[in-house]
């Protein structure tokens, strides 16, 4: 008679009840702690089979698979180890990254359930924090992965750092953002956003020998209707200026016929425009003026006073045959539209921005 193998180690496994995504096995018994999408819940249950006994039960095959295939995790902290998702996802590494608009804004969208993904967070940090050490990483790139097949929330959106899930958008945020993220995924892209990460280790008074870890991950995301431009970048070489403070264009009323084609149904949207140095002012006092174009068509100009802040970078790029590309915000309707330029001024650009072209993929087929 074959002997049953020893009981599997304490860890998270697929919930045998099917009520949640994972349930914690303490090495001897199933516990009342379950989790879905990284969010832990208290869910009392009737006695269940041990994972080792489940080897002879077809209904608990998922527990067997998780036990046999689960990697040996190094216990780095006193709290229970984080559950890893067992569902198959399309690898984001095979998709071209698509930086969502407004990524240079202050990260303000909170990610939830970081506690369940500490191993991924510590990997992003390079190591786990020491006791009472606060670690901060800014300007990280996070990938947003919509999960319409998630059995616990069809609107779920995972947030990945370095290809590993580090948390999830809150339910309300996920419901708002998932549709536009799905559009990008269907087009073959992996949506990305700038992120800031904070982590710390504190004393765990229940288990004094091991610290307890905490983390906070935030994303720089505009409202869902402001994540994707209504047009594509030009086919010619261009470099996208980082998002900056709004500057109102002048003379938009002369180009309303053009602007009407780009106003979103919501009355508020983003477009990509190119900046060009033209001659303005008077015959006696000519001045460099920045003209803004969408898909090659003029839609307005900056004032002479504002133009001086952008002319240097526009001329610098033009000397190398590259167009200066910028975000434009369009508010209005088919008969009246206001356009603001959202771009960083020449003297505020970081030195590393000049090292290579800052590009954004084309979403639409010609």
UniProtKB/TrEMBL annotation:
Residue ranges, annotated region (Disordered): 1-20, 76-105
Pro residues bias (residue ranges): 1-11
Domain DUF2510: 12-41
Name used for this protein in its record: DUF2510 domain-containing protein
Top-rank taxon, per record: Bacteria
Pfam families associated with the record: DUF2510
InterPro entries membership: DUF2510
């Amino acid at each position: 008679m074959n002997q049953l193998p020893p009981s599997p180690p304490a860890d998270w496994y697929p919930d045998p009840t099917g009520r949640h995504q994972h349930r914690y096995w303490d090495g001897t018994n199933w516990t009342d702690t379950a989790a879905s999408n990284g969010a832990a819940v208290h869910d009392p249950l009737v006695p269940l089979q041990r994972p080792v006994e489940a080897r002879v039960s077809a209904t608990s095959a998922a527990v067997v698979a998780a036990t046999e295939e689960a990697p040996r995790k190094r216990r780095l902290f006193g709290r229970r180890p984080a559950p890893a998702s067992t569902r198959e996802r399309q690898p984001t590494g095979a998709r071209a990254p698509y930086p969502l608009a407004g990524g240079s804004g202050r990260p303000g969208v909170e990610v939830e359930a970081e506690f369940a993904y500490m191993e991924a967070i510590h990997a992003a940090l390079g190591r786990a924090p020491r006791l009472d050490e606060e670690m901060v990483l800014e300007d990280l790139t996070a990938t947003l992965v919509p999960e319409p097949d998630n059995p616990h929330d069809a609107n779920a959106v995972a947030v990945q750092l370095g290809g590993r899930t580090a948390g999830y958008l809150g339910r309300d945020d996920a419901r708002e953002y998932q549709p536009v993220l799905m559009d990008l995924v269907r087009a073959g892209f992996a949506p990305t956003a700038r992120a800031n990460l904070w982590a710390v280790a504190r004393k765990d008074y229940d288990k004094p020998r091991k610290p307890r870890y905490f983390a906070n991950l935030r994303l720089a995301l505009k409202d869902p209707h402001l994540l994707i431009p209504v047009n594509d970048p030009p086919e010619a070489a261009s470099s996208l200026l980082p998002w900056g403070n709004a500057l109102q264009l002048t003379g938009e009323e002369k180009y309303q016929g053009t602007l009407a084609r780009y106003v979103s149904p919501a009355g508020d949207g983003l477009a990509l425009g190119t900046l060009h140095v033209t001659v303005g002012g008077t015959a006696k006092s000519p001045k460099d003026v920045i003209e803004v174009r969408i898909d090659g068509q003029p839609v307005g100009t900056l004032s002479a006073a504002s133009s001086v802040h952008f002319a240097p970078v526009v001329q610098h790029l033009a000397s190398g045959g590259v167009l200066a590309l910028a975000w434009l915000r369009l508010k209005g309707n088919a008969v009246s539209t206001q356009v603001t330029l959202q771009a960083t001024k020449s003297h505020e650009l970081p030195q590393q921005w000049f090292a290579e072209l800052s590009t954004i993929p084309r979403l639409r087929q010609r």
